[in-house]
From TrEMBL:
It comes from Ladona fulva (Scarce chaser dragonfly). Belongs to the class-I pyridoxal-phosphate-dependent aminotransferase family. This is Aminotransferase class I/classII large domain-containing protein. Keywords: Aminotransferase, Pyridoxal phosphate, Transferase. GO terms for molecular function: kynurenine-oxoglutarate transaminase activity; pyridoxal phosphate binding. InterPro entries: Aminotransferase_I/II_large (IPR004839), Class-I_PLP-dep_aminotransf (IPR050859), PyrdxlP-dep_Trfase (IPR015424), PyrdxlP-dep_Trfase_major (IPR015421), PyrdxlP-dep_Trfase_small (IPR015422).
Length: 442
């Protein structure tokens, strides 16, 4: 066991007895590449412009003149009969470059959002930044923290998009299986102990990735007691928790779950929210909330990469949030939840009808997916990717996509109830039943 780990273990024990100690130096979590990023003077000027008084003469940035824009006005008619009209200054700001961290009015709204739904401890020491979907913030955070060969802790199964971000670093995946309530604290402890009992483990894991609400692909919602225990383990092992929560409003319960962010006394949670599943995925708009030094490092990355998230998307989301108000937003979230819950119920019925003796699944507590374990078939890859698509005309995702080690045989498939008509769900599962029967008798 390395000296480093003993040190953290020791500090973990001390932390548990005393008041939690807030992390002040994040350099342990940040790689050398990220430490080399510096703020861009041009982008800093852009930020200043956003709050400058009107008598400042602005000869700095190369902002294209709005007279050259081909657009006069934009109107979005909403399904509730109201509309959002973008014209004049508002339209110009929606079509213009903006500050890297996001439009100031949207950022203010997002801070209110976080206060309302998560009330993070010590919020003044945290920043919020608008990102190109949740994916962008996550990917840049992985790039911020990971080094080649690092161990990272992920659940099994894990959202495939995150595995794709981590794989180029040739990581050592430290995995802990989920059960019907999601990620298991005692399995997490076991996985960490197993990692350290391995003679050649030298680096301490720094990152713990979790998708706590309506996990993709398993549809589990992690109870608060588990979150508290996992947070403790993160403190003991000096882990940064990457809380990827794009399905936060898509759980099938009456009230919103309590987040890791809301528990974060020590400043070790980076939370990723997204408008993809609630407004539109094509907006490509999400936001990341975390300790200021980490968010600032992400901002430097964005200053060099995308400059900022689409101004148009930010303005649309801002106007929509303003128009709905918080009560209207919550009401709308309930409608979305109801929509997916009905589809979940239907797919569960269809699964019971066709797959009763052929597979096992847990009825998901949220999200868009049914995670199905096929019985009597060791590995479903060929069945899904070849015979399923080409012979039977039905598409699922083979579970391998969500496995940290995709080379191992995998009997799971992911079925989405988001888009298919009820009739297609029925036909699709009948075809799956035939596929399984054929595979079992192969
Ligand atoms: N995390 C999870 C678990 C997801 O399922 C997705 C979307 N598939 C994302 C992050 C990324 O979503 P977006 O970038 O659209 O916010």
């Amino acid at each position: 066991m390395s000296g480093m780990r003993n040190m953290w273990q020791l500090s973990g024990q001390i932390l548990r007895k005393q008041k939690p100690s807030v992390i002040t130096d994040y350099s342990y979590f940040v790689n050398d590449l990220a430490k080399g990023r510096k703020p861009s003077p041009l982008r800093e000027l852009m930020r200043m412009l956003a709050s400058a008084s009107s008598n400042v003469i602005f000869l700095a940035e190369g902002l294209p003149h709005s007279d050259t824009h081909p657009f006069n006005e934009a109107r979005f008619d909403l399904k509730d009969g109201t509309s959002i009209t973008l014209s004049g200054k508002l339209l110009t700001s929606a079509l213009q470059y903006g500050p890297t961290e996001g439009h100031p009015d949207l950022l203010q709204k997002l801070r209110q959002f976080q206060e309302r739904f998560h009330n993070p401890p010590g919020f003044d020491d945290r920043d919020v930044i608008a990102t190109v979907g949740g994916q962008d913030g996550l990917c840049k955070t992985i790039e911020l923290c990971m080094d080649f060969g690092d161990p990272v802790i992920v659940p099994s199964p894990t959202y495939s998009g995150v595995l794709a971000m981590m794989r180029p670093y040739r990581p050592k995946f430290v995995t802990a299986a989920e059960d019907k309530y999601g990620f298991c604290p005692y399995k997490l402890r076991e996985a960490i102990n197993k990692y350290w009992s391995h003679g050649n483990s030298v680096k301490a894991p720094k990152l713990l990735y979790l998708n706590p609400t309506a996990s993709n692909p398993s549809g589990t919602v992690m109870p608060i007691e588990r979150k508290k225990e996992i947070y403790e383990i993160a403190c003991e092992n000096n882990l940064l928790i990457l809380e990827d929560d794009p399905y936060y409003f898509l759980h099938f319960d009456n009230s919103e779950p309590q987040s890791f962010l809301s528990l974060d006394e020590e400043g070790r949670v980076v939370r990723f929210d997204s408008f993809s599943k609630v407004f539109s995925s094509g907006l490509r708009l999400g936001f990341m909330t975390g300790p200021r030094p980490l968010v600032q490092a992400i901002e430097y990355h964005m200053q060099a990469s995308v400059l900022h998230t689409s101004s148009l998307s930010q303005i649309i989301a801002l106007q929509l949030l303003n128009q709905l108000g918080w009560d209207g937003f919550i009401k709308y979230m309930k409608k979305i939840r109801q929509f997916y819950m009905e589809r979940r119920n239907h797919m569960s019925e269809v699964a019971s009808k066709h797959l009763q003796d052929r597979a096992e699944w847990t009825v998901p507590d949220g999200g868009m997916f049914l995670w199905i374990k096929v019985k009597g078939v060791l590995d479903v890859y060929e069945m899904v990717m070849s015979r399923g698509v080409h012979t039977k005309g039905v598409m699922f995702v083979p579970g391998h996509a969500f496995m940290p080690d995709p080379t191992k045989p995998c009997p799971y498939i992911r079925a989405s109830y988001s888009l298919a008509s009820y009739e297609d769900m029925d036909k699709g599962f009948a075809r799956l039943a035939e596929l399984i029967d054929e595979e079992q008798h192969h």
